[in-house]
Amino acid sequence: MTQAQLISISSSHPLLSLVSDHHQPENMANSASGMHVSDECKLKFLELKAKRNYRFIVFKIDEKAQQVKIDMVGNPEETYDSFTKCMPENECRYAVYDFDFTTPENCQKSKIFFIAWSPDTSRVRSKMLYASSKDRFKRELDGIQVELQATDPSEMSLDIIKGRVNL
């Protein structure tokens, strides 16, 4: 049965309309926003997580292609300050950052942060698109340990990051 046939049947029967609303085809990239995640995003994230080839990855939604793509990557030597300077002042982005730290017990550790950057000055449409695509995108990146939502630079300062890992 096609999607169009289901819609015509469901509109004529109240119980069927309840059922059909909850069974959207899984092949729709993201039922909330229609976004697809490029294979390059998944591959680069795996390289960050397993091989530690990158300090951070910044992702951008290409609205025309309806796809999340890589905006930029940072080498392992990059600092947190250089990462925050990569975030555009008026545009939304997703980012992952591999944060290295030493515990009070002198143990070397690392946590992978997912940052949803949605500045107050960005377009409303863009904020809605990023918000509706975030959960699905995060599910594609297996290994995120800490999530952070930021609307201005102070909400993703190094002190905030350290606080999230109990430093």
TrEMBL record:
Q: Where is the ADF-H domain?
A: 34-166
Against InterPro entries, the record matches this protein to: ADF-H (IPR002108), ADF-H/Gelsolin-like_dom_sf (IPR029006), ADF/Cofilin (IPR017904)
GO cellular component terms, alphabetically, are: actin cytoskeleton
* SMART domains found in the cross-reference section: ADF
Instruction: Tell me which Pfam families the record gives.
Output: Cofilin_ADF (PF00241)
Q: Which SUPFAM superfamilies match?
A: Actin depolymerizing proteins
Q: Is this entry keyworded Translocase?
A: no
For this chain, one GO molecular function annotation is:
actin binding
Repressor found in the keyword field: no
Which CDD domains does UniProt cross-reference here?
ADF_cofilin_like
Q: Could you give a single Gene Ontology term from the biological process aspect? A: actin filament depolymerization
Q: Which UniProt keywords are present, listed alphabetically? A: Actin-binding
Note the PANTHER family from the entry: COFILIN-RELATED (PTHR11913)
Its family remark reads:
Belongs to the actin-binding proteins ADF family.
Q: What is this protein called?
A: Actin-depolymerizing factor 10-like
| Organism annotation | Raphanus sativus
Taxonomic placement: Eukaryota, Viridiplantae, Streptophyta, Embryophyta, Tracheophyta
